[in-house]
Structure to design on (155 residues):
């Protein structure tokens, strides 16, 4: 995985957590700055470390300024009406979930991280991850929020 792809994934992760493009950009830049300053050298674990840094920086951002609503920033307002309503719908769905479950859904279905990478990031087995994702989907289905397809053909 190259640094540009990782940067995009970390940005999306931050954006879905803070719901503001400018703040997400700042957090993403700070994440990579801290990563590079850390001299982190453990092969195969880089994405895990990046998600950890980004998650902690997002928490710090919430401590500074509590999240009050799902107001859309200017970048979201410039899209199509369909994009606008899709973003609102996805945010409403994610808002129903606990923080850990929301992070799982962002990593899996928005960033399209592999099951293996997610297991490394959160420190659970593949079986436990599949069980958690299935449970989250059941909760969402029971609340009438739709259906999420699962891809079984990844590593």
């Amino acid at each position: 995985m190259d640094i540009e792809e990782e940067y995009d994934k970390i940005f999306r992760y931050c954006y879905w957590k803070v719901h503001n493009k400018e703040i997400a950009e700042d957090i993403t830049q700070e994440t990579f700055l801290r990563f590079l300053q850390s001299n982190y050298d453990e092969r195969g674990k880089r994405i895990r470390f990046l998600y950890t840094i980004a998650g902690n920086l997002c928490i710090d951002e919430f401590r500074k300024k509590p999240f009050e609503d799902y107001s859309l920033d200017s970048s979201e307002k410039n899209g199509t009406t369909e994009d606008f309503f899709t973003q609102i719908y996805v945010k409403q769905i994610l808002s129903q979930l606990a923080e850990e479950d929301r992070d799982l859904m962002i990593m899996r279905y928005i960033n399209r991280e592999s099951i293996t990478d997610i297991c490394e990031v959160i420190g659970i087995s593949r079986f436990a991850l599949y069980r958690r994702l299935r449970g989250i989907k059941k909760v969402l289905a029971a609340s009438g929020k739709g259906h999420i397809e699962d891809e079984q053909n990844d590593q």
Observations:
- Residues 58 and 64 are 10 Å apart (CA to CA).
